[in-house]
Write a structure and sequence with these properties.
single chain, 134 residues, alpha+beta, 6-stranded mixed sheet, Nuclear Transport Factor 2, Chain: A
């Protein structure tokens, strides 16, 4: 386990990135969302490892995301857990849970995930997400 001081420093680095990621996601603002990522960017979900370059995340990509979320009645998501489990000066592992909500405030689903943030090109960004969401 990392020391309390290391975890506190990692939280100062990671939480603003995760907050910005969720804000961009909820707005379906592709540019804001991408600004929180490092590329290539990876997502492991439903047994499939997805790999995206910056150029892969375009209007067609966000349209697919919007359609998929609309199909489940999604309106917004919130973080319900963010715990630093491992950290260094170049990488942070964050055990997360997020909850998806409908417009009326009812829960669509809650999913556990692991987010890996890396320090590249002078900034922290999300490099990998491993999620139990579909």
């Amino acid at each position: 386990m990392p020391s309390e001081e290391a975890v506190a420093q990692a939280r100062e680095r990671a939480i603003p990135v995760l907050d910005a990621w969720m804000t961009g996601f909820n707005a379906l603002d592709l540019q804001a969302w991408k600004a929180t990522m490092h590329f290539p960017h990876f997502r492991l979900a439903s047994g499939i490892m997805h790999r995206w370059e910056d150029a892969d995340m375009d209007d067609t990509f966000i349209a697919r995301v919007r359609t998929g979320l609309g199909n489940i009645g999604w309106h917004y998501s919130v973080w319900t857990r963010r715990e630093i489990v491992h950290c260094s000066d170049e990488k942070i592992h964050v055990d997360t849970q997020f909850t998806r909500y409908r417009e009326d405030g009812s829960v669509v689903a809650a999913h556990d995930s692991l987010y890996v943030l890396t320090y590249e090109d002078g900034r922290w960004g999300i490099k990998l997400r491993s999620s139990f969401a579909r």
